[in-house]
Design goal:
Pfam families: LytTR (PF04397), Response_reg (PF00072). Keywords: DNA-binding, Phosphoprotein. It is a single chain. The protein is an alpha/beta fold. The chain contains 6 helices and 15 strands. Strand 11 and strand 12 form a beta hairpin. The chain folds into 2 domains: 126 residues, Response regulator (Rossmann fold), CATH 3.40.50; 104 residues, OB fold (Dihydrolipoamide Acetyltransferase, E2P) (Beta Barrel).
């Protein structure tokens, strides 16, 4: 799922962006989550790095899009940013805040779809972390997307994937640090789960791939919040 923020004071324009996202994902709302903001102030006040991409209107009353973008970069240097504008002269702006480009209003589906493909590539790169494992003199590289969960037993850490398990001498702390930029959260003191692979939470168990893992009392609330942020965004 991709999480999207639309920051636009014009309700009709925000609705059009929403419609294009829905069309791009073939009306499958399980593939995206959208949160809309009518002004930059409310967006920034509620921001906590919960989005993959932001469609930001340039020409808004009060705090305009460029000021919002400048302040946004102080909070999040990595989120994908796309400007939307009705004014052609604004089209060349955005480099100082690392925007990947602009879309001219009224938005057209073809350029929007091209931009979405680029966005998806960037989001995938951002979420993916390569884990390097040294096992019996061999070096193995695991993509974080392929890791379903990580568990530790004493000083042995096991990375579970759909293709098998990989064991190394390490600690859960080191595994947590190496996967900090990916979508992982602890379900107990001994296990990290990949939110991308979570199928359900049933009572005090989380179903990851085909595995049922126990959730400790201390980790349940943070895990549920992490899942809510991942699947639905906030705001």
């Amino acid at each position: 799922m991709i999480t999207i923020a639309i920051v636009d004071d014009e309700a009709a324009d925000a609705a059009q962006t929403t419609e294009l996202v829905d069309r791009y994902y073939e009306h499958d709302s399980s593939r995206y989550a959208i949160t809309r903001y009518a002004d930059g102030e409310s967006f920034l006040n509620q921001y906590s790095a919960q989005f993959d991409v932001i469609f930001l209107d340039v020409d808004m009353p009060g705090m305009d899009g460029m000021e919002v973008a400048t302040r946004l970069r102080e909070l999040d240097a990595h989120v994908v940013l796309v400007f939307t504008t009705k004014v052609v002269r604004y089209a060349a702006t955005g480099y100082d805040v690392d925007a990947i480009g602009y879309l001219l209003k009224p938005l057209k589906y073809f350029p929007f779809a091209l931009k979405m493909r680029k966005i998806e590539e960037l989001v995938a790169q951002r979420r993916n972390v390569t884990v390097t494992l040294s096992i019996e003199g061999e070096t193995h590289f695991l993509s974080s997307h392929d890791i379903q969960y990580v568990e530790v037993m004493r000083h042995e850490v096991t990375y579970h994937t759909a293709d098998g398990a990989w064991k190394v001498w390490s600690s859960l702390k080191e595994a947590t640090e190496s996967l900090a930029e990916a979508n992982f959260a602890p379900c107990n003191r001994y296990c990290l789960v990949n939110l991308e692979w979570v199928k359900a939470v049933v009572g005090d168990e989380v179903i990851v791939g085909g595995n049922r893992l126990p959730i400790s009392r201390a980790k349940k609330k943070p895990l549920m919040q992490a899942l809510a942020d991942y699947y639905g965004g906030r705001g």
